[in-house]
Design brief:
Strand content: 5-15%
Helix content: 25-40%
Low-confidence stretches: 1-18, 64-76
Order of helices and strands: EEHEEHHEEEEHHHHHHHHH
Oligomer: single chain
CATH superfamily of the largest domain: Transferase(Phosphotransferase) domain 1
Number of helices: 12
Number of strands: 8
Radius of gyration: 21 Å
CATH class of the largest domain: Mainly Alpha
Shape: globular
CATH architecture of the largest domain: Orthogonal Bundle
Distance between the termini: 57 Å
Number of domains: 2
Strand order of the largest sheet: 1-2-4-3
Structural class: alpha+beta
Largest sheet: 4 strands, antiparallel
Length: about 375
């Protein structure tokens, strides 16, 4: 699992007894490793580490993933899995393949943390949404989305989800009460040195949805990932992590009091404002009420996400994205011919559980097209 700290820049693992986790990179062989000193982990940390490894092993089969590059489009990789897990006495080493372009946060640093062009944000997030949709389809929450946990690759779908130390199962179907446990942050095996990185990156709480922080009897479910997805959008577009320089207690107060999320605007004097299509997605994802947030399925149908999926990833030439025009939400030309049958079929499903909600229908291209037309009942 990728940590908030930077890996060690050499091929030898540092043996610092004061920390439980150390890192090593091997560019020649194309992998990096994370070693956990089990002697420095308490009983609770060891239990959660074992549970996480077992959960990932069970996760591989239903999602049909592998840790190697895929040769078939039907077996695309969406999450970053360990290439190997080795136990040597009291040291557990997890090895991962190096990402060809680093993470989305690395891309921001190369741009001087001034924010990415809107088209580049759409390219990255639309493909990250494919992975999140795959996780949600098998009832799994990520719970730890941020720019550092989006790896950029040259093979499809060009974005991998990492930071899997917080993944968990959805609440069972039919239960009105969601999860009410906080994701593991301070467990020693995660290797997060939150205090030393506070000035450079926000506390993990910054990306949590309000219902995750509240810890009430209602709990949380998949909408928590959607909220985090929206904050990652702001992080990539503005170049700043959410709630930067705020202490964990201050972040919790901001979320518990229902304050509005960070503004979606870049700080440069010549920076263009975000498109209406982008604002619609951002506002929908960051709704304070979890019930008002869209699903991954409905987000994939929005014009902005579809626009991002249609653009070719080019992480080495971001300046080319500045010339791309975002989609116009006030469409006057008809949407694809299948748009109307898709709405009709989802509304008339025999199984009531498979029918769309009004919220998700409002995000479909056909309904968005309808809303963009001017009513004229006399000139049909």
């Amino acid at each position: 699992t990728a940590a908030l700290d930077s890996p060690v820049e050499d091929t030898h693992i540092s043996a610092d007894p004061s920390v439980a986790v150390s890192y090593a990179t091997d560019p020649q062989r194309g992998f990096w490793s994370k070693t956990v000193n089990l002697e420095l982990c308490d009983r609770s940390s060891l239990s959660s580490l074992l549970s996480n490894i077992n959960f990932i092993r069970k996760l591989v089969s239903p999602i049909n993933l592998s840790s190697n590059e895929q040769s078939s489009s039907e077996e695309m990789q969406f999450i970053s899995l360990p290439l190997s897990i080795k136990l040597d006495q009291c040291s557990l080493t997890l090895s991962y393949r190096l990402s060809s372009h680093g993470s989305a946060f690395d891309l921001l640093r190369r741009c001087g943390l001034s924010g990415l062009p809107e088209a580049a944000v759409a390219v990255i997030l639309s493909r990250a949404l494919l992975g999140l949709d795959r996780l949600h389809s098998v009832g799994v929450l990520h719970r730890n989305l941020c720019a550092k946990h989006l790896l950029l690759t040259d093979f499809q779908p060009n974005v991998l989800l990492c930071g899997l130390g917080s993944i968990c199962q959805f609440p069972p179907r039919g239960f009105d009460v969601g999860r009410n446990d906080l994701p593991p942050v301070f467990t020693s095996w995660r290797g997060w040195n939150v205090q030393s990185s506070a000035n450079a990156y926000s506390h993990p709480l910054a990306w949590y949805a309000p219902e995750v922080v509240v810890q009430d009897f209602t709990g949380y479910s998949w909408p928590a990932d959607i909220y985090s997805f929206g904050l990652v959008m702001a992080e990539l577009y503005t170049g700043q992590p959410p709630y930067l320089d705020l202490k964990p207690t201050e972040i919790m107060v901001e979320k518990l009091c229902g304050h509005i999320p960070p503004d979606l605007k870049q700080t440069g004097p010549t920076s263009p404002p975000p498109s209406e299509a982008m604002l619609q997605v951002y506002n929908a994802c960051t709704q304070y009420n979890a019930k008002n947030r869209p699903t991954t399925k409905s987000l994939l149908q929005t014009p902005w996400i579809q626009w991002g999926l249609g653009l070719e990833p080019d992480y080495d030439h971001l300046e080319n994205y500045s010339e791309q025009s975002p989609p116009n939400t006030s469409l006057t030309s008809p949407p694809p011919s299948k748009a109307m049958p898709q709405v009709y079929n989802t509304c008339t499903q025999y199984n009531a559980k498979n029918r769309s909600t009004t919220k998700s229908l409002l995000q479909t291209p056909w309904i968005q097209w309808d809303l963009g037309l001017k009513p004229d009942c006399d000139q049909l």
